[in-house]
Amino acid sequence: MSMENLCNVLHGMRPLLLMIVGQIVLAGMNIMFKLATSDGMNFSILIFYRSLFASVFMTPLALFIERGKVAKLTKMILLQGFLCGLLGGSLGQNMYLQSLVYTSPTFVSAMFNLIPAVTFIVAVILRLEKLGWSSAAGKAKVFGTVICISGAMLLSFYKGPDINMGNTNINLLHSAKQKEESKPLLGSFLAVAGCTCYALMLIVQAKAAKRYPCPYTFTALLNIMAAIQCFFVALVVERDWKEWKLGWDIRLLASAYTGIFCSGLLFTIIAWVVRMKGPVYVSIFNPLMLVIVAITAYLFLGEKLFLGSVLGSIVIVCGLYVVLWGKDKEIKNVSQLVPEEVDIKSSSVKGSSHGGSSKREEKDEEEEENKRDSQAGSEILGGIYICP
């Protein structure tokens, strides 16, 4: 193979390689979080520093990339940024980390694959999305959600025998300053509650995207809001300023890594791949993080793999793909429908002077709104989230 052909192949593989790198980055986040909390770092302080590092990274990046765009920060956008910071930062991440403390990185990674299914449930309850039971896409979303919930229940209530694959004799948690008590049921509840917070955040974020066409700036705003909120939460929880100090240790590394790479660099990667391949392409890589976390935790944290964890994770991933298939089919159907309506509109305007054209315009506007809603929902259910 010539050098030119090799370059062409690598160029075509950029989205694939970037998504693999992105999932490795996310898997590293779970390991960093576990090591930092095991070192005795208060997770509320860790979340504050993560949001702070993310803000410092994203703000100049947003100013550089979107310097040519002019979009006014209205009161509604500020409110939506505050809510996203609250749901995805103060509440969501605290629940995520507390769940991680009570369980394991593999368990939490599996549970948070429920986010698309939970988002679908919340969107239907809030009447932001139609159930669509009469269509194949609607049935797929419902059945996929049921499968995801079944997998979560299996993961939570069935442990089963451990899967012995040998021993690496490496356990970075041996030097932990505090031994964490395992509470799988409470950890499961917190994980589901965290998924609900992220689902609500993604819905608010999708609404904000319609009003404010500057995703990098909005992400910077979200992180700034989260940093302010998390500061006050951490201040209430921990008033000993010695605990706030960051040395050249795992605490600084975890804060900088999760803030810069997970909330900053990863957002840029995902935004680029979405433009190239679409949201569903991004979403299909989410379970890869679960595999990487499971292998890494087994090799370096001494985490045991149990039959229930493996079976539950497989069921959740299967349900996730069913939900995403249904959403992908729905967005394709809407995309095919709208151009036809637009063509009818233009022909009716040319060939008729009746008042029926106004009704057609109203219908076109409704179809276009449905298309935008479906596309926003596609991005949500596609798993375009950089949290936790």
From TrEMBL:
Signal peptide annotation: none
Region (Disordered) location: 345-388
Subcellular location: Membrane
InterPro entries in the record: EamA_dom (IPR000620), EmrE-like (IPR037185), WAT1-related (IPR030184)
Every EamA domain range: 16-155, 186-324
Transmembrane segments: 12-33, 45-65, 77-96, 108-128, 140-158, 185-204, 216-237, 252-273, 280-300, 306-326
Compositionally biased residues, Low complexity: 345-356
UniProt keyword list: Membrane, Transmembrane, Transmembrane helix
Membrane topology per record: Multi-pass membrane protein
UniProt similarity note: Belongs to the drug/metabolite transporter (DMT) superfamily. Plant drug/metabolite exporter (P-DME) (TC 2.A.7.4) family.
Protein's name according to its UniProt entry: WAT1-related protein
